[in-house]
Amino acid sequence: MAASAIRRGLLSTASKYHKLKCSQRLLSAIEYNSGLDLKRPQALCSACGLSSFQQTRFMSSRNRAEGKILEPVGVFEALKQHGKYETGQLFLHSIFGYRGIVLFPWHARLYDRDVSPAAADSKPDTAGHGSKEVKGKMHTYYQVLIDTRDCPHISQRSQTEAVTFLANHDDSRALYAIPGLDYVSHEDILPYNSTEQVPIQHELFERFLLFSPTKNPPFTARDTLRAWQEKNHPWLELSDVHRETTENIRVTVIPFYMGMREAQNSHVYWWRYCIRLENLSNEVVQLRERHWRIFSLSGTLETVRGRGVVGKEPVLSREQPAFQYSSHVSLQAPSGHMWGTFCFERTDGSHFDVRIPPFSLESNKYDKASPAGYPL
Question: What is the pTM (predicted TM-score) of this model?
Answer without folding.
Answer: 0.76
